[in-house]
Amino acid sequence: MPAEPHLDIEKLKLIVDCLVAIGTIACAITAVFGSDIRSLRFRPEFSLSIRGPFKSPLKVRDGNKDIEVTAYLSMLNIRNIGNQDAKNVEVFVSGLEVELADGTFKKQEEFPALNLRWAHLNFTFADVIRPGMQRDCDFSVIVKREGLPPGCEWYNKKLSKVPGDTNLGFQFIFLPFTRDYVVGPGKYRLLGQVAAKNTKPKDFTLELNHTGHWFEDEQAMSSKGLGIL
Length: 229
Known about the structure:
- By secondary structure, the protein is an alpha+beta fold.
- Helix content is 17%, strand content 44%.
- The chain has helices at residues 9-41, 218-224; strands spanning 46-62, 65-80, 86-99, 105-107, 114-115, 126-129, 134-144, 166-170, 182-183, 186-196, 199-210, 226-228.
- Strands 3, 4, 5, 6, 10, 11 and 12 form a seven-stranded antiparallel sheet that branches. The protein has a five-stranded antiparallel sheet with strand order 1-2-7-8-9.
- 24% of the residues are buried.
């Protein structure tokens, strides 16, 4: 008659104790690092693109009154391609570089570092951008210099002797009185970040070719007036 299997109580107790200890450690790790672990799987992520330029009437300041001019407007589209809501989203422009004759780029020291404003809201922060959704920031304005009043926010007297028919300005939440956010023709790199409360900032570089030429046709302006490189 075969012998009955011997049950080692001490070994069984040791195995149970080990399993309990592993479970306790796992719970402790989850309690301490749970949000960090979840953030590796669920987080917002951004993609950027420029829409426009679109031809549009634009009200500008002329002394104590508003007048209407024709302008080309562009939008910066921010899309959440992640799998979690992006909360308190902002778009910050940290600098502008201009291409020199030798092909290198030089930082424009006088260019302001400011937030763009969300389209139709004039706010710095967008409360939420849900996964798969998108929102636009007001991005740039192109206006003809001819007939532009000196009091206009898109006029920059420093450009009066610079060749070209148009000015390019950026639509910040605040427009400094120095007008250094308005530039003349040239190839530029715009540097910045998209940030949200619940994800790390995303750096971006946008390359623009502002030729200084004005075209009445939107398609011609898009290809020959303001090129997105």
